[in-house]
Input
Amino acid sequence: MKAHLDSFVLALRYLLKWSLVSLLIAVLAGSASALFLFSLDAATAYRERQPWIIWLLPLAGFAVGWVYLRWGREVEAGNNLLIDEIHDPKQVVPLRMAPLVLGGTVISHLFGASVGREGTAVQLGGSLADQLTNVAKLGPGERRILLMAGISAGFASVFGTPLAGAIFGLEVLVIGRMRYDAIFPCMAAAILADQVGLAWGVHHTHYAVAAVPPITAWSIAAIVAAGVAFGLAGMVFARATHALSGFMKRHVAYAPLRPLIGGAVVAVAVWAVGTQRYVGLGIPVIVEAFAHPLPIWDALGKLAFTVASLGTGFKGGEVTPLFYIGATLGNALAPLLELPFPLLAGVGFVAVFAGAANTPLASTVMALELFGPAIGPYAALGCVVAYLCSGHAGIYKAQRGAKPPFSAGRDPRRDADR
Output
């Protein structure tokens, strides 16, 4: 009886401690995400009113690259730095990560780079949360949980998906494994951070999947086929971005010149195609994917512009461009697979992300939160197939890999237990 009582008291202490810490993380991350989203809206609105500003993108890229070279070398790894610190805790993430990535991302969007927002929100949440390490006198094990909760809070508050944000913080670290010792802090921080964002007046885009057809043998086969395409799209995106980044680092020694070159390429490409449809977040095009048929060129265009932007060093995230690529690709595949295009746009929205980030569970839960429970079976199947077909070539290099479900052995270079 005493053992049960002691266990209960320890559980209460754990819940109380991490409730307080999670609340602090939520206030910091949710407020930072709100500031970021408001700044992003203002930057996007200005760029759309002044489309000529994209010709300044090379100079903007050079300026941000120079600032990172001068003051941000320790935090330039971004999300990968946070993941590395969770695996092998060494030192508190410098606080300057937060203002640098916020300013760099807003500038990227202001001048027309094709980048997202998840990376910025995750870095804001993780870096701000890590400042509590010394204040709360946390050890290495507890610091891991703190960082995971910060990642969850940032992801949840920027997309308005608290459950997906919590699972993302648990799932993104190791391919195929989750850490349950952090499940309460991640859940609490994500849910509270989303509420903090809403309290600041943040509004998230609504995507409507009007009708979900009944499950049939054909619909299952069609979703599996689409999932293969989504997984390949995620793999191409991740590998192309890493390949271009590596190429630029090998051949352009001075870091600020890389986004200058990339910015020039993007600006000229926008002039050549005659539209800014493929730069910025691309939220209006994503909304279109749920409303009427779109050509396959939208998915290919966004992929090319985003690889050119991220691969040459512009700051931002990968996830919203992946949503764009997935939604437009699903829309274009719908007539071939004889499925409603809103349904396949919704599945593609989350499945390409699942394949590129190796997070099928978080992606499935995101579909439930964004599109409703009816899409659940289709989204789950599409995300899992995309994850299996992506080759685990993820967008996060620091992500470690457990044994793939179809592998005969373990790759010691990506052993999650080291």
